[in-house]
Structures are given as C-alpha cells and as structure tokens.
Amino acid sequence: MLETVQKVHDESRQGEAIAPNSGDSQTYAKKFYIESYGCQMNFNDSEIVASILNTQGFGATRNVEEADLVLLNTCSIREKAEQTVRQRLTEFKKTKQQKPHFLVGVLGCMAERLKSKFLEEEKLVDLVVGPDAYRTLPSLIEEAGTGQKAINVLLSREETYGDISPVRLDSNGVTAFVSIMRGCNNMCTFCVVPFTRGRERSRDPHSIMAEATDLFERGYREVTLLGQNVDSYYFVDEAGNETVTFARLMEKVAEISPLLRVRFSTSHPKDITDEVLHTMARHENICNYIHLPVQSGSTRILQLMNRTYTREWYLKKIDRIREILPGCAISTDVITGFCTETEEDHQDTLSVMEYAKYDLAYMFAYSERPGTLAARRYQDDVPEDVKKRRLAEIVALHRGHSLDSMRKDVGKTFKVLVEGTSKKSDTQLFGRTDHNKVAVFDKSDLRKGEYVMVKIDDCTAGTLIGTVVGRC
Ligand code: SAH
Ligand code: SF4
Ligand code: F3S
User: Fold this and answer.
1) How many whole angstroms from 77 Cα to the centroid of ligand 1?
2) pLDDT 10s digits, 141-181
3) The pTM is what?
4) Nearest ligand, measured from the Cα of 37
5) Where do the record's region annotations for Disordered lie (predicted)?
6) Which domains does the chain have, with CATH numbers?
C-alpha cells in the first residue's frame, strides 16, 4: 500500500498512484485525469467515479495536459500519504494558471477528513467530494465550472454504488476488484477509516453476482472481493427472507465457474469463521491466501489498539487456518511504535512473526491521525528513531521468512493464472500462484487469462522463476 510498505513478492501490486488507461477517451467531449492513492477500495472507487463521469461526457486520459478535470482520489491512513497528495496538488498549479477552465478535485478519505478546510487551505482545489458522494459529482463539477467552490462530504448509511458498473481503469483484462461492502464499524484506536468511510454496509449480493458474472463473461479469470472487514459481510433483504453471510457470498461467486479464481481482502482476525475456512477448503478456485493483519504481538498493545483479540487468540486462529487449510499462505499488517510500546511489546511482535512465518507482510511505523481515538486518548510517545529501528527489525525478520517461503516452492509445480508480460522481459510472462506469489516463465504461445502448470526452478526474494510444464 503506502510509504513504509515492504513489497516482498508482489511484482504486480499496484503502486502508490495509478493514472487511468481507458482507451476510449476519443469518443468523449471532455477529458478527466484521475490518480488513486491508498487501498484497493480507493482504486475501485476511482472506477466507479470513471463510470459516473462517462455518463456525463467525460472520458479518461493519462495525460494531465489534455485534461479538463483532474481528480486525486486520496488516502489519509498515514501522514505521509496526505503529504504526497499535497505535493501533487502544487504540481498542478502551472497547468491551472495556463488553463482557466481546468478544474482540480480532491476525492476520497482526505476530502472526507478535511472537508471544507481543504478549500481554505489549498487554494488550488475547486472540488471536494467524500467517498459516499460520488453520485453528486456531475452537479458539483457544474457548480465548480461557474467558479463556485463545490463540496459534498456527506457520509451515508446506505450507499454501496451497487448499481454502478465500474469502468475498469488500467485493467489487465484478467483480474478485477469487486467491492462487497463499504465503511467500517470497528474502532481500532489508531485508524482513521471509520471517520473517513463511515458506517459499515454490505452491498446487495445480486449486484455483486451480476458484476462478477459479467467480468467472467468478458474474459476475466480472477475477482478479489473487497472490504475493510469482509468477514463481517452480512446482507438481509428488505423482506427479511434472505440473509447472506460472507462464506455464502464467496461460495456463490466461486460457483460462477471453476475457471474463476476468487480472492478476498481484508479479514479481521476476530471475524474470520470456520465456515469461511471450510468454504475455502471446499472450492479449489478460492485461493489459499488469507490476509490477517495482526498489528501487534503484545496483548497489552492490542488492547490499547482496541483490536478485541489477544496474542494467544490470534495464534490459535493461525493454528486453525493451518489445520483446515494446510499450506494456506498468510500475510499480515504490522504497526511498530504504537503509543506506550516497550521493547518487551516489540519482542512480542517479533515472536508472533516468528510463529506465523508470514509469506508476506506490510509493515508500518505508527503515524498519529488527528481525531482518532488514539490521538485523543494516548500520547504518541515512542520516539521516531525508536519506531524506525523497530520497523527495521521486523522488516529484517520478515525478509528471512518470506525468502524461506519462496525457497520452499522451488522444485514444486503450481497452477498459475497468466496475467501479462513480465515487467523485466518481453519474452516472459507473469502470473500468480494460488498463494498470490508472482511467477515468471517463457512466453511461447501462451495468452493472458490461461491457466498453466509451472514448475519452479529458482526464486528471488519477490519472484518465482519457472518453466511451463502443462496447460490446464
Ligand atoms: N481494514 C484493514 C486495514 C485497513 S488500513 C484491517 O482491519 O486490517 C491498512 C493497514 O494500515 C492497517 O492494517 C494498519 O496496519 C495500517 N495503519 C492503519 N492506521 C495506521 C496508522 N495510524 N499508522 C500506521 N499504520 C496504520
Ligand atoms: Fe481501520 Fe480497524 Fe476498520 Fe481496519 S478494522 S479499517 S484497521 S478500524
Ligand atoms: Fe486510505 Fe481511505 Fe483506504 S484512508 S487505506 S484510502 S479507506
């Protein structure tokens, strides 16, 4: 995801900002340029925004210079994420001076957090739109076009954009994200998301099924079901006749076709159920990969974070996953230097990592976010150099585990979904294993979207290098 992220073996993961690549901009009278920051849900929201803008005669462009409208879909998760956006806004200043009708809009979590303050602080911004207000973009753009400052940051208890078909930006035509819920009801004390995204709500399963089925029919072969806390997905229809849990939803998506791979993110350790794990075990096309953020290995810190589980409870969850899904890949998020964290707490985090031996980890130094419970209740008292040193220690420990995890795969054969041409060589393709590891192999006559059996000959810290030994 963001600044302190350690990308260990995910060559294909999107970078911090992605500009659009919708090839049909010619057919639209006006052009918009969008950059997305933060989590996958934000990237998916940009695709919803693109869909709304298309209906208003705006086509996507990758070239800021030819855009009439520039949108930054922003993230507030850590301070650095916000600084990046502020920096980016100053870069648009020149274009704005040259083109009087050029509009700049801020969308997403930073818009929600700063609200009208944004318009006051950043003179370069014409438009501020929160994550639940994208349907009002057309009227806001019109308003901004007349020189008024336009803003809508209302959060909603219902909005899921369920009926809007996202326009896939920068798509490889093989893998896609499908949002199944919005918001978050957990109040992890360090986290800004409940404030920027509002209350949790689950999207109608019929619209999720329709979107996933349509993707499959258009040649996509993998969907990732997205939510801040997917395991708490729960849909009850208006009549109260139909209830759908996450396990059931995932099963329904998996049943669209055995050729459609299903992934999901993120699971909160307190909510992932045996039913989810058994559903994964029953379906070969639900990938054996679980992102299970631990945040800290110290029960005392977990309590201060309001994660609602203890170290022991989390470790039992890891055991349970390994029992029901032997060999399942597990990844995590870790925060170092949360308020009052001692060396002993830090050692507890290292020992959880030693136990879990994560295949992949995203590791961050704690960044205090204004308005969060931690900012109000506790002092951000771990010095910056201590946070950095602890971060370096967990990164070093994890690097060893992830390398071991890669090396373990050498000599084995995996089913890989071909996603495209390798970034490093035109003569090679890349795809991912069930465990979400990137594998590269010779192109021959293979195509994107095909499944192949790849025997792994070698590896680097981030990539498996193999030979195709069969087609599926
Ligand atoms: N909903 C997901 C995570 C969302 S944010 C979950 O509950 O796991 C992604 C990650 O950013 C978090 O898991 C956490 O590790 C990190 N993060 C969130 N707030 C942070 C903060 N204030 N400082 C540093 N890292 C933070
Ligand atoms: Fe933030 Fe916690 Fe919600 Fe994740 S579960 S988005 S960390 S409040
Ligand atoms: Fe960032 Fe908002 Fe996602 S704060 S991580 S873009 S929900």
Assistant:
1) 7
2) 999 999 888 999 999 999 999 999 999 988 999 999 999 99
3) 0.93
4) 3
5) 1-22
6) 2-152 (3.40.50.12160), 175-404 (3.80.30.20), 413-471 (2.40.50.140)
